[in-house]
Signal recognition particle receptor FtsY (Roseivirga pacifica), 317 residues
Amino acid sequence: MALFGLFSKDKKESLDKGLEKTKESFFGKLGRAVAGKSKVDDEVLDELEEILITSDVGVETTVKVIQRIEERVARDKYMGTSELDQILREEIAELLTENNTEDLADFKLPEGHRPHVILVVGVNGVGKTTTIGKLAAQFKGKGKSVVLGAADTFRAAAVDQLKLWGERVGVPVIAHGMNTDPSAVAFDAVKQGVETGADLVIVDTAGRLHTKVNLMNELSKIKRVMQKFIPEAPHEILLVLDGSTGQNAFIQAKEFTKATDVSALAITKLDGTAKGGVVIGISDQFKIPVKYIGVGEKVEDLQVFNKAEFVDSLFKK
């Protein structure tokens, strides 16, 4: 928990506000479950199990949390319900620590190679293009040069939206229009990134392909053309998930991790939902680091995920 205080006051307030619905729902249910009870017994644990599952933490992760609490109850012999908040907080923080989720204080690119190439995947409607625009804005704000590639060529709206973000942020967008070859867009975006000495290239991809085989083939082709310029590209495959869809986000994560080597997650729209527990479950089940979370409409409401600050906001009284 050493990273408390690294977030600015504004970012922390935004995170607190973004997780408010999840927190109120979770602790409202927890308060009712322990009302009139003084110790953590089987009945309280059953109630807690139901609360975690209905908060979209997921069945497997819930079972893991309950087992850990049962072990602590057995070890400590007596545990009052007043201590349950703190124990839950510790166990959830521990789970996130185990799941390769490193604490970042700010938007940073790895040292070394340039440009750093991020391939962004995810179904339509999860906030993929908006996430790319906000990432571009945040990195540009840090003095980094960014090139965007509009390779979601199945939807005119996706290409146009990315172009608008490019204009707004002041970064070049490589686009060939609708129904063009996505890999050709990716090729030109990486080529421009290399030729102009850009720090970062972010390439959008189609969110809807008819089958997983189509998806795998399309992403493999995009990777191959990128590697003509940078053998190790893409350096990162970022899967964007809509946190408000709860269990649907798990299904999407399952499909995309089977289809391609997802290396990081962005979980959006947490401010509009009580399903923020999905961050904990997805991080635990897929062992892929949650890198960014979306907690509001503004550019700065796309935040780097900091597990210490997340758990603090979730449990804040």
User: Anything to note?
Assistant: The radius of gyration is 21 Å. DSSP finds twelve helices and eight strands in the chain. Residues 187 and 228 are 8 Å apart (CA to CA).
